[in-house]
Amino acid sequence: MSSSAPNAASSAGQHADLAQKRVLEDSAAANGSPGSSAPQQEAKRKKPLPPAPAIVGKGSDFTQEVWQNAALLVDKPKGWTSFDVCAKLRGALKTKKIGHAGTLDPMATGLLIICTGKGTKAIDGFVAMEKAYSGTLRLGQTTPSYDAETDVLESLPWDHITDEDLEVAKRGLIGPIMQQPPMYSAVSIKGERLYKAARRGEEVERPARPVTVHSFDLQRSAASTEDLDFRISCSKGTYIRSLAHDLGQSLRCGAHLTALRRESIGEHDVSNAWSLAELVEAAQTARSAELL
């Protein structure tokens, strides 16, 4: 009898230790702390990625099923804001989830990627892609917006500028650079969009931001010697208006943008984009067919 008491106590102690160990293991597993299976916990926390959106270029099959997860390639018309295009397609597609992957100014034309449905989750990926533009800038004139959307602020002599001067100024804007956004932009400083302050005639201090200009081809326009035609490839966040302004500042004659077209975003080219009118018609046709 006397020998069995210590054994019973020992057994009870072992059971208590085992129970406590299991409680600790369960707690560790629940909190993902050491002792749990890290890959298993990570797998539980991670949601599966949505399928990549269908790239819907000109002539692609276009059905309601497709635009539940799509990236629409649109050639934005001049005079439309990027928001205007989204609003037009929101009505045509009868969808609430829609957004664009990188703003184009109203004056600009060219490739705008509009994501719909689950495709809106891919917007950041498109925004991060390299962009290519073509356009025209005018020497000898500055404007508050750095483009032709506002009146000429100052006129300066420009006809003394040589091709060598242009080449030197251009080279200074290629590669990683720090760029100050225009006052007429949607950049927010202290909770207010810059363009709102600009419309009040105010100048706000705005920090320069890092961008990269991969290539910058420049030549005099056949139409006018004061105009320069260009092609640029650059990183996200680059203001082409600011490049035109900065080139003019470097040449000490001023410059502003008079035309701009976005040619590509990553591997997606404007030659494969729908006109807005064609896309709206295709959407209406698809909706009508599926209602029959």
Please give the CATH architecture of the largest domain. Answer: 2-Layer Sandwich
Category by helix and strand content: alpha+beta
In the predicted model, the low-confidence regions spanning at least 5 consecutive residues are 1-36
**Residues in helix, %:** 25-40%
The first-level CATH class of the largest domain is given as Alpha Beta
Strand content: 25-35%
Task: Output the CATH homologous superfamily of the largest domain.
Answer: Pseudouridine synthase
Radius of gyration: 29 Å
What would you call the shape? elongated
Average pLDDT level:
85
Number of helices: 8
Structural features:
292 residues; alpha+beta; Pseudouridine synthase; 3 domains; 11-stranded mixed β-sheet; two-stranded antiparallel ribbon; 8 helices; elongated; PsdUridine_synth_cat_dom_sf; isomerase; tRNA pseudouridine(55) synthase
